[in-house]
User: Fold this.
Amino acid sequence: MLIHTRFARALSTNPALHMASSLPHPHLLRPPSSHLRSHLLSPFSSRFLSFSSSPSSTVPNPSTKNFKTATAALLEIGGVKIAKEDVVKEDDPTNNVPDTIYSKIGLQLHRRDNHPLGILKNAIYDYFDTSYSAKFVKFDDLCPIVSVKENFDDVLVPADHVSRSYNDTYYVDSQTVLRCHTSAHQAELLRKGHTHILVTGDVYRRDSIDSTHYPVFHQMEGLRLFSSDEWLGSGMDGTSYAATDLKKLLEGLAKHLFGTVEMRWVDTYFPFTNPSFELEIYFQEKWMEVLGCGVTEQEILGRNGRQDHVAWAFGLGLERLAMVLFDIPDIRLFWTNDQRFTSQFSEGKLGVKFKPFSKFPPCYKDMSFWISDAFTENNLCEVVRGLAGDLVEEVQLIDNFTNKKGMTSHCYRIAYRSMERSLTDEEINQLQWNVREAVQDKLKVVLR
Assistant:
């Protein structure tokens, strides 16, 4: 189970974050002080959005043979065939997956050896193969459509946790989601008898819009089990033995990726591990969180037939580390097919510094409106992304106030910028007009 800071720290009581509290959700907690942290780890993080909680017909679990195949063009991931109508269901009130998100399923940037994410993944694989004589079994093609149980319950996410809301998570239906972390596969792999695993994959979270956040990103999590035979002669109990092994391994990984750097461990809290830690390194004249980790909660092991073992787990975000290692300034660049970007990277070349090729200026447009109690910024960002795609660079709240009647106004500044060409005033004006109409219609706000 990867460890996401967001998830671990957010038992919010704000009713606006629980639009559908009866439905689960996944962006493991992120501390308000740092957006970058949110994508840093994997199963330890949480935040998502919520729609109607009314019941609907359950979509077949993609892990079963009955998962529907369609006559239209199909995706196939990990042996599972997926049609668009299996994921995007406009007539299902519990579905909040837009076309733009469906279009990312199956692209699997982490499996491209010449892509920064694939280069980083393979560098981590090399470290584990060397350190553990290839004992770790690697999974990087598991289907991202998982059950609510797999995504939340199996990793001890509380039933009322904010990460289960429709504001943060993409729901296929009331019992099925696009995974929010790679930890969603942990229980199944434990039951199958695996003791050393690395799981890498694309994960999905409704999120804000800026240079470090994107609704689809990539995580890697690691898990290792220990039997009592391994720690009995060490003079330590099982928990201490696992924690010592974990810290030694991850310090070596940080050195493998970043060279000789100063490191420190920070005690923290995650629902799935105890004790729990974050590893920070002093890099480029500042402390930077690299990953979250800890000793796996015994309840998770016991539920999956491994009660006589202890285990450690860690989680990290590939984009987060790749942006630092390759000097990539905007997370949208990972998705571009522009050869001026893709040609700069080669298999096995970790840390080649990206040379910027876009000097195109941003175009700023402001939009003010009176909000309702149901308004959330994630919903706003979904609407803007749905129309502008990767032309939107940032959506930022620049002003808000409440009048004497108790009505609250928000003013957002939207930055549009293409990484590949200059945008014309005409197309941006039309785009902004479309955004205003969609925001008013879908979010039920009153434009000012």
Notes: The mean pLDDT is 85.
